[in-house]
Amino acid sequence: MNDVVLFVPEILCLAGALAAFGASVGGRSYKTVWLVSLLGALAAMAAALCTLGFSGEPFFPGIYRVDFFSQLLKVGLGGGLFLVLLLCRELTTVRPGARLDTPLFLLLSTAGMMMLVSATELLTLYVALELSAYGLYVTVALHRAPKPGAEAGVRYVVFGAVASAVTLYGISLIFGATGSTYLGQLVFSEGTATLFVIGVLLVFAGLFFKLALFPFHFWAPDVYEAAPHQVVTFVATISKLAAAGIIARVCGLVLDMSAGMVEIFVVLSVTAMTLGNLAALVQKDLKRLLGYSTVAHAGYLMLGYGAFSAMGIAAAIFYGLAYLSMSHLAFVVVCALGEGGDNPGLDSLGGLHERSPASAAMLLTAMFGLGGIPPTSGFVGKWFLFAAAIEGQQLSQFVLVLIAAANSTVALYYYLQVIKAAYLRPANGRPPFKLRTSHRLAGYVSMVITLLLGVYPTPLWEAAQRAASLLLH
Predict the structure, then answer these.
(1) Containing H/E element for 151?
(2) How far is 261 from 306, CA to CA, in rounded Å?
(3) Does residue 199 come out as left (phi exceeding 0), alpha (psi in the -120 to 50 range) or beta?
(4) What is the DSSP letter of 284?
(5) pLDDT-derived band of residue 157, with 50, 70 and 90 as boundaries?
(6) How sure is the predictor about 444, in pLDDT bands with cuts at 50, 70 and 90?
(7) Which of 67, 82, 194, 307 is paired with 97 by a 20 to 30 Å CA distance?
(8) Taking residues 97-122, what's their average pLDDT?
């Protein structure tokens, strides 16, 4: 297979970024830059879809692998970017001087994430991880109000730099223990087992930062609250899918040493679910509530990873793709309500079903999905995660699933509070509004995906199983 063909999704994503940059410096209007970026995202998604059945190594053997797993995630990344860019038609929460550059940085970050899910060598993984982060370091600080934007940017950069350093140190320990950085060649001896395990845990720590898993989550609620709405949408959807994908690939590496890792993953899962849900209970800012919800969902994903099995990894892949549409759907409403620049709170949802029935329906579907209520993809995704967790029929795993189920019940309280505010609170004089055409399109696509995967999950579940099987060869 021609190497260029295997790298086409990444090339088109980078070409879209270059075209957007050219349009920007060429004095074109923001609408032109936006349309170019939108076409770049759509082309990257289409290329990933067309190469879904391809496999090979377009560079030096062992450092970068294109297979069904990587291309499936690239379809999700390209599609997610397209949906996020649809919300960028009007960047009212981004400072005016930076609006032309925002789509460019989102394209560059997505290109890095596409490279990340294909990386099969630790230094390649690290470079892709950094490429995916640099655009976000810039864009989270672009809020039109200087103070919150600066705070969000500094917090994200500081935590990101620490996570980057920890990851790099972990890679050095793995290299010291094994003499290799190729994922397929990492075999440790009894004499270096401890060094290898510590190195793997440190690499995981850097990846858990991207997932906003406890205790690497402290940046998430503050950045969600203070960053521009569309940028937070990107962080809450595409960034999480990329993190879920690369963690799945690294989990395939440590299956042989899973006996020493299960307890750590269980503790992280329980703590993240519990802390995220309890903290979300008292939130009044909708973006901050969704930030803590992200922490809880990272804990649910750990159920799949902690199973250290093919079914567990498949469940995590399925849930990562399903979560993208559910979270995006919630942020469509956030972007619509917050066009004036303010963060929507629960009070601002009053009378939403009368002011904008479409927005209320989207919010209802999103909350049902995130809460795991049928017939949404959130219910099916949690079912797969719970089934994977108890597959080993161990008492500790059964208890873990009971804790996860209890946490899901707690989460229902604050998700239903959002629905209650939208459907039962009075409008109090707030005027009706219509969704922009681009917002409406993005919302309806995410709503259809969320409901379709809840009713008919078989194609995606089979694809996730096929992708997981490739990681375990």
Answers:
(1) helix 146-178
(2) 8
(3) alpha
(4) -
(5) confident
(6) very high
(7) 82
(8) 88
Residue 324 has pLDDT above 90, yes or no: yes
> Angle, to 10 degrees, between the axis of helix 122-139 and the axis of helix 193-211?
30
**pTM (two decimals):** 0.92
Distance in angstroms (rounded) separating the CA atoms of residues 181 and 196:
12
Give the span between the Cα atoms of 448 and 325, in whole angstroms.
9
User: CA nearest 107: which of 49, 24, 168?
Assistant: 24
Domain ranges of the chain: 261-473
CA dihedral defined by 392, 393, 396, 400, rounded to 10 degrees? 80
Residue type, 156: Y
Closest CA to 391 of 320, 315, 460, 317: 315
The answer on pLDDT for 352 being more than 90 is: no
Q: Residues 6 or more apart from 268 whose CB is under 8 A from it?
A: 208, 213, 214, 299, 302
Distance, CA of 120 to CA of 252 (rounded, Å) = 11
Residues 6+ apart with CB under 8 A from 141: 149, 150, 152, 153, 154, 156, 227
Q: Are 266 and 400 in contact (CB under 8 A)?
A: yes
* Cα 96 off chain centre by: 27
